[in-house]
Design brief:
- The chain is α+β, with helices and mostly antiparallel strands.
- Helix content is about 30%, strand content about 25%.
- The longest helix is centred in the middle third of the chain and has 29 residues.
- The relative contact order is 0.16.
- The site of gibberellin A4 has 15 residues, from strand 5, strand 6 and helix 10.
Length: about 350
């Protein structure tokens, strides 16, 4: 499979190399679909090159985001608090999880009118909405392509089985921009223990502790399409429980399997646990499109994914029911457990 640059990770007990699957969308379609399926099964994660999203669309949203985050705090606060969309700082979601980041969370459905939040985000809300819509539309199309490829690879008769869930006017998809401020050098040297959480068990004993930018979790939705600037920090948890750093590459997209895809495929794909360690001297900016179904769509296993050898693992449930449960469990793991069939 198009595996590139093995990435050495150090762990207290072991040191291992892992290849992060990198898939070139310009390769032969049948091959691409097989590689995507294998990556979703083995890692719940892959990188995409030659994804076809125009660099202009990407740089415009990136510039708007940098402009917003460069504003003084009191101005950014005017785009908050989250209701559920808007500006957030240090608190992740509504239930007390903390992170060393600030972010914008926006509705990823085509805006019929410019929401109040957008007026507080930009001096030119129409331009901002347009830039967001262009980016979101491009990554939504890309997500639908990937979902078509998955359906093809799984041999489903209806190739839009997955894509139609997010290509829906009622889709609950969201768009998020995360800004991880640079780590203050003085803090890093003077007060490393009390200031920063010691979560990084992969670090050798003499290394500088890492700051948790976004705590470990899986995304609740179907697929996440992530793009970052050239500052690293994203780590994924491998199947054997090791944290693997994902080298940043602004020209690529990272694709993450979410909990809903795990349920739809009856656990053939697994949601990938990931986190961001914000310990760079440079600011990290990442943009995520979270592709989700409508609130009343069923996300329990597709009949085609169930057989006598693979009986259904989940009771029937809607995305709305799962989302409610996932949000109340915060960043905790095993959110799907309460939907397991007995
Ligand atoms: C993780 C993925 C998306 O960023 C998000 C997050 C959401 C939020 O920030 O409001 C959650 C988190 C995410 C999962 C558990 C709950 C909800 C924060 C949190 C503690 C927008 C999403 O959909 O789920």
């Amino acid at each position: 499979m198009g595996v590139q640059s093995p990435n050495l990770m150090r762990n207290k007990k072991t040191c291992r190399a892992i290849g992060i699957p990198t898939i070139d969308l310009l390769m032969d379609r049948t091959l691409v679909s097989q590689l995507i399926i294998r990556a979703c099964e083995e890692h719940g994660f892959f990188k995409l090159t030659n994804h076809g999203v125009s660099s202009q669309i990407i740089s415009r949203i990136e510039e708007e985001s940098y402009d917003f985050f460069a504003k003084p705090g009191f101005q950014k606060q005017q785009a908050g608090p989250l209701t559920p969309f808007g500006y957030g700082c240090k608190s992740i979601g509504f239930h007390g999880d903390k992170g060393e980041l600030e972010y914008l969370l926006l509705d990823a459905n085509p805006a019929s009118s410019i929401p109040q939040t957008t007026k507080a985000i930009s001096n030119d809300p129409e331009k901002f909405s347009c830039v967001v819509d262009d980016y979101v539309q491009a990554v939504r199309d890309l997500t639908c392509d990937i979902l078509h490829l998955v359906a093809e690879g799984l041999g489903l008769a209806d190739k839009s089985t997955f894509s139609r869930l997010i290509d829906d006017v009622e889709s609950d998809s969201v768009f998020r921009v995360n800004h991880y401020p640079p780590m203050d050098q003085n803090q890093k040297v003077l007060n490393p223990i009390s200031k920063f959480q010691m979560h990084d068990t992969n670090l050798p004993n003499n290394a500088t502790p890492s700051r948790v930018g976004f705590g470990e979790h899986s995304d609740p939705q179907i697929l996440t399409i992530l793009r970052s600037n050239d500052v690293g920090g994203l780590q994924i948890c491998s199947r054997d429980g090791l944290w693997v750093s994902v080298p940043p590459n602004p020209s690529e997209f990272c694709v993450l399997v979410g909990d809903a895809f795990q349920a739809l495929t009856n656990d053939r794909f697994k949601g990938v646990r990931h986190r961001v360690m914000a310990n760079s001297n440079k600011p990290r900016l990442s943009m995520m499109y979270f592709g989700a179904p409508s609130l009343n769509a069923m996300v329990s296993p597709l009949p085609q994914m169930v057989s006598s050898n693979s009986p259904t693992l989940y009771k029937p449930f809607t995305w709305g029911e799962f989302k409610k449960a996932a949000f109340s469990l915060r960043l905790a793991g095993r959110r799907l457990d309460q939907f397991k069939s007995s």
